[in-house]
Amino acid sequence: MRARPHRLERLPEQYFTRLLARVTAAAAAGGEPLADLGRGNPDVPPPPHVVEALARAAARPDTHGYAPFAGLAALKEAIAARYRDVYGVDVDPAREVAVLPGTKTGLVEFAQVTVERGGALVLPDPGYPDYRSAVALSAAAHLPLPLLDDARPDWDAAPAEAAALYLNFPSNPTAATAPEGVFAEAIEWAARSGAWLLHDFAYGDLVFDGRRPESFLAVDGAREVGLELFSMSKSYGMAGWRLGFAVGNAELVARIEDLQNHVFAGVFTPVQEAGIAALTGPQDTVEERRALYERRRDRAVAWLDGLDARAEGTFFVWFRLPEGTTCERLLEEHRVALAPGEGFGERGRGWARLSLAVADETLDRGLERLHGALQNP
To answer: Which residues of the chain have a pLDDT value below 50?
Structure first.
């Protein structure tokens, strides 16, 4: 048996792979059909005109060679236009936009281009589990940054020095939008500590109750200290297409493109052309998608009354489990799958994340079961 490289041994167990395996095993055990509310897999497909753009481009004989490593200029211009028109941010598409094969890749790349072995990466607790994969692959030290009750980082607990900090609003898993002033606070901390900032903006367009999307880059000083990741998965339902962007600091954009030149050969051209169609075409489906998740959020919060359920954005609800109740027990005894809060960090212990990205009948079946189980634990 040949030894595995140590970098693979550093990787944590993949949280969502483990969760899916547990749900699959429970489904195979028989019984009532499971209500799987654990995974955040967008259930609404891309707009028809985007699919048509992909098909047209794929039918052309000139789109199957290597794409430009840095991405199509027209695609960079399209995301820059969205930032200008929707988020009020002017960016230079040639210098301040990198095309990514999905923003999950960008989470790892950011760590690779900002921290040396042993340097400190600061991650929100609770926060998206795959941030920890970036720590492992860069051989960095992981420093958790506790989130307070309103999801604002506890800056008093932040290290005086670090290589980089990850932020995420709207937040997975807490479903909180950015507390007032939090981006300015992060920029001030970065200036003191000498750290870079990454804002994971994957759920940026999915905000509720009349809120407007808030880009980190709209705050003075943001572009000097960091990047924002924009995903096509959530706004346009293109999760499996693997297309996203790093937007902001020109030096970091150049570093990411340099790294990608060595490990990727560009994103498939028809996917990029479909991305242009999504960003520049009719935007009504973005609002329709957001409104659908808000309606589902309203139903979920009503069913979870009394459990401190929170959902200002994303397609998740974050709620407190009654004392003595666990997600494992809910899966085994009530056939409802949730994402256990402790998988997102120690401060998630005792909480659960519920996904709204499921068919309405699945959501309603799961909520009914949860209501009975949680009101009488």
So the answer is: none
Residue 256 CB-density burial (10 A; 0-12 exposed, 13-18 middle, 19+ buried): buried
What pLDDT is recorded for position 18? 87
User: Using CA of residue 13, residue 16, residue 20, residue 26, what is the dihedral sign?
Assistant: positive
Q: How far apart are CA 55 and CA 51, in angstroms?
A: 6
Residue with tokens 């409802």: 336
For the record, the structure tokens of 288 come out as 């329709």
Which domains are present in the chain? 6-45+285-375 (3.90.1150.10), 64-280 (3.40.640.10)
> What are 279-283's contacts with CB under 8 Å, separation 24+?
279/75, 279/78, 279/79, 279/81, 279/82, 280/78, 280/81, 281/47, 281/49, 281/50, 282/47, 282/49
Gap between the Cα atoms of 329 and 335, Å rounded = 9
Alpha helices in 241-326, H assignment, sequence order: 250-263, 269-280, 284-303
For residues 197 and 186, is the Cβ–Cβ distance under 8 A?
yes
DSSP H or E stretch at residue 364: helix 360-375
Residue 305, token pair as written in the block: 């009354």
CA distance 221 to 184: 8
Amino acid at 206: L
Q: How many C-beta atoms lie closer than 10 Å to residue 147's C-beta?
A: 22
pLDDT at 309: 96
CA distances from 359 to 37, 192, 209, 284, 321 (A): 10, 46, 22, 21, 23
Give the residue from 184, 204, 161 showing the smallest Cα distance to 315.
204
Place of tokens 């200036």: 191
